Batch of 4 targets.
Target 1
Amino acid sequence: MMGSIEGRVMATVALWLLSLGLALTSAFATGKAPSGLAYSTASAHVLQRQSAPGSCHSIGRALYSRPDPHCTPGVVNPVVTQATIGTTICRSGWTSTVRPPETITRSEKLASMAAYGLRESASRYEYDHDVPLELGGAVNDPRNLWPEPDYPPRSSFYLNPKDRLENVLKRMVCRGAMTLAQAQRLIAFNWVAAYNQLHIGGA
């Protein structure tokens, strides 16, 4: 099962690289990460300013929503590179060492919800990293965080479809079946399309 998923992922990556024209050489030329995404050094311990209220608009609906690419295009952590994955994202427990504290993200989440015009209870949303920490996403940059709809039942919290895709991609990166840059592009460009085309399901 996992082998077929990996095959579909690699085929999809190849097609998307072609259509997007995101060659690694051009990414280096513009000073961005190999994925073509910008680097961020925003501190996990400093409250970050969010977009203006009502200025952001999600794409899609419910659990398959995607962030506004103008507000939340996805940015990455310069500490995490292909050369350092063994000591960062592929090391057990590493993400807990860089995750911003709730004392910071609580206020940011509410401001981000206002930016996206959301007035429901904050408990219905996960303040989610567009490019996840597990794939080298920036730790506390408003360009990489947004209020993602989550399952209403508490027992299913943090088990949305995007999380399952992230888990599959991280395993592939850490096994050497996919580069970090490819995984970051799949997530940031259109995670819903990747999830649907690859039939991740409960992987």
Note: Residues 2-198 form one domain.
Target 2
Amino acid sequence: MNTYELRKSVGTILVSPHPDDVAFSVGGTILTTLLPRPFLIVSLFTRSAYAPYHAGNHDPDTVSLIREKEDMAFAQSTGSHLVRLNFRDSALNVGTREGKFPLLFLSTLLYKWPRPESPFERNLTRISSKGPPMLKHRLILEAARFDRRYRLLEAAISKLLHKHQDAVLISPLGLGCHPDHLLASRACKRLGHLADKVYYYEDLPYARRYSIEGIAKHARGLDRKLRPLRVDISGLVESKTRNLLLYRSQVSSDHVMETKEHTARLGNGAWFEELWTY
């Protein structure tokens, strides 16, 4: 665990499956007064070889260091503290023993990521990927608890919540059904009773690919008691964008456009981020 300038207590714990998820999804909200400070960003899956806009080497050591520096720059820009848990992201597990059962294999069958390799997988994926969206979501969310990383992840977040009692917890909703986001979402839901309040954010840029009704169905599939809360970030969009672009190895102009389109469609002439809470 890497910790940067961590105080004895924090007001809000923001769970980010990967470096950049908080910037994408609540990068405007954290510039408002909604959430109590100080902030602690917890980046979970920081061991990675994914850096599509980095021109150099893409080995895990190089990429992980690049993404760490980006994470630190974002934390500094937003006045946040940062903890990095150093779990391997799912992309690094593709082709390994962990990649075959059960979470990544089910992700292949239901969502075609990672890409199916064998003819058997491709044939099975053609059938299973056409299933009802909410049934697929329930299946893969259930499979997350059998992932080798899940208990370790849950224990790490639990330790932080016990240390920072009365903190607000900010969790991904799990839109897009990326395995790492689902692991984080499930863990936070199970540990929500340890927090003063829980908010789930709409995972961007995935959220842009859902209808507004589809997002609501997904949220209530996680917990039917959840209700939306829209946060006006109209005067903060450019500041959010500048901070998002600190993740230059990850973020393209298309990603920025998708993010802006989603915040614009949530309001009539205004810009919003949406959280789901009780």
Note: The domain at 27-233+248-277 is CATH 3.40.50 (Rossmann fold).
Target 3
Amino acid sequence: MAHSVQNVKSAGPGRHDDRVGLFLYVKPTGARSWVLRYQMQGWRMDLGLGAYPGVTLAMARDRAAEARRLIAGGQDPIAEKQQAKPKTFKQAALELVERKRPGWKSTKHAAQWTATFGTYVFPKIGPMQVGHVETADVIAVLTPIWANKPETASRVRQRIEVVLDDPTAPGNRKPERERRHHRGLPRL
């Protein structure tokens, strides 16, 4: 049945079709969410459009229409949504290590990068989005190790900069931003 605002509010548990691939899923708890079902390269896909009442019927239809435009152009709206999502520093760093791994002469390099990130970096800035990491955050990572382990701190700083400068991380920092994180550190 085609949805109306009244139907959306009173729909019982189950899946309710709008006849154009737009569904309203109603859970036994009464929670409602919009899903667009489509086919891409022979696979049936479900794209979440949001929960009702935050996403109204009109908004769900608009989002479904936009997704259909992408599909008609040969693009997968789920893939587009995932690519546009900003990565955390930890995600970006681990992906960078995996991309660099084949080019390193020794397997120890990947282990060293991962270990230094895990020990010094991820606890402080790992959950932050790459684009939100500021110089002060990097200095907060480096300051505790700078006086006692200057060589390690220097390597950690260089590795952080490689991640922050990586152009493949969505939501990455703007090119004009300050990248000299060592300027705020004490001289030894």
Note: The first strand starts at residue 14 and ends at 17.
Target 4
Amino acid sequence: MRTIILDGYNVIYKIPELTSKLNESLEAARIALAMLLSTWKKKYLYSRVYIVFDGKDNVTREYPQTKKVCGIDCCFTGGGEEADERIITLIRDYGDSSEITVISDDNKVRNNCKAFGVKAESPSFLQEPGMKSKNSKKEPIKIISTKKDREITAYYANYLKQKGRL
């Protein structure tokens, strides 16, 4: 089952069309993200889209931990848990990692994706080519050798094993 997991606020703050919705409210930005993903899910044939938001005590009281918005599963963490931790738990527990794509620019999330063999994409992955802001900065591509890449991955996997997370 093709699944996409998003770091909700990370994505909202990286896509200008969603960031502008913050002028209305945080709720408006979350709904705009869910609407974008509802269309995106159908177009690109994903079975499940799961958005994880950092929850605060006042937010989690207003919302159940998971709710559907525009047909998209939205999860609000609570009890001191951050969205990053929930995403890492999901990718660790999910199973067939080849079917998962995680959308986040957070280094911790991306490193865990790599350690678990999960595809990680930047929030710009969600934007149609014509939607990308002309003002958005292009990040320089950092290329490392295959050997160095394997060393980093092995080191991080070993670290996760020592922490009991792999």
Note: The helical segments are 8-12, 16-19, 26-44, 57-62, 83-94, 107-116, 146-162.
